């Protein structure tokens, strides 16, 4: 598949098979995460991979009871590392962290799609609760949750607005 085909056919998956994700596949997903660009190449991110069933359940509860998260064999939590981005001060902490994590997560979603895996980018969760569950050090801010597993559903394409809505061409 071309990169554009992967981009266009990726869907958020909210039902997963029990089948585990092989280590070598997971390794490629980790590569996708860390090879994303970051401001000043500071690489201000750290990822938790959760396999523990009880912990997955608590994370799902902290994500406004999105219990489908527990169906995935592995759940990734992306954390922005404020101490690493500190050289960029306020702009780094308030803005670049979000860019950098977004780039990593999108890489992950696309790499997973290429591997035949399903993912769902989860942004609705109680950050403080997740920090507590993972015993996060103060400098790590949980910014994204992604359940990863083999899809047990194939959702229809989600619509996008027409091109004209998004672009202003200045000549
Ligand atoms: C920042 C962000 C936060 C999101 N949070 C959630 C979420 O908490 N729960 C959920 O089920 N989907 C969540 N999504 C997935 C979106 O609902 C989904 O991407 C959108 O509806 C388009 O569908 P698609 O991913 O299949 O193209 C989130 C996506 C993004 C980018």
Strand neighbour order, sheet with most strands: 1-2-4-3
Fourth CATH level, the homologous superfamily = NADH Oxidase
**What's the helix count?**
6
Radius of gyration: 17 Å
Number-wise, the strands total 4
**Which regions are unreliable across 5 or more consecutive residues at pLDDT < 50?**
none
Major β-sheet annotation? 4 strands, antiparallel
User: In the CATH scheme, what's the topology name?
Assistant: NADH Oxidase
Instruction: Return the CATH architecture.
Output: 3-Layer(aba) Sandwich
The share of residues in extended strands comes to 15-25%
Distance between the termini: 34 Å
Explain this structure.
The protein is α+β, with helices and mostly antiparallel strands and 171 residues long. It has one domain (3-152): NADH Oxidase. It is 39% helix and 15% strand. It has six helices and four strands, in the order H-H-E-H-E-H-H-E-H-E. It has a four-stranded antiparallel sheet, sandwiched between helices. Helix 2 packs antiparallel against helix 5 and helix 3 packs antiparallel against helix 6. The protein is globular and about 50 Å long. The termini are far apart. The chain binds flavin mononucleotide (FMN). Flavin mononucleotide (FMN) is lined by residues 11-12, 14, 66, 120-124, 158.
């Amino acid at each position: 598949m071309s990169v554009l085909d992967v981009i266009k056919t990726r869907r958020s998956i909210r039902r997963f098979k029990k089948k585990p994700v092989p280590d070598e596949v997971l390794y490629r997903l980790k590569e996708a995460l860390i090879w994303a660009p970051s401001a000043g190449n500071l690489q201000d991110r750290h990822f938790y991979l959760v396999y523990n069933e009880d912990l997955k359940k608590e994370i799902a509860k902290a994500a406004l009871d999105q219990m489908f998260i527990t169906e995935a064999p592995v759940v990734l939590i992306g954390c922005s590392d404020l101490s690493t981005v500190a050289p960029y001060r306020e702009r780094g902490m308030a803005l670049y962290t979000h860019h950098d994590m977004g780039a990593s997560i999108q890489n992950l979603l696309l790499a997973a799609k290429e591997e035949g895996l399903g993912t769902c980018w989860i942004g609705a969760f109680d950050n403080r609760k997740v920090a507590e569950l993972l015993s996060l050090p103060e400098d790590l801010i949980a910014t994204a949750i992604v359940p990863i597993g083999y899809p047990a559903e194939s959702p229809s394409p989600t619509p996008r607005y027409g091109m004209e809505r998004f672009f202003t061409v200045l000549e």
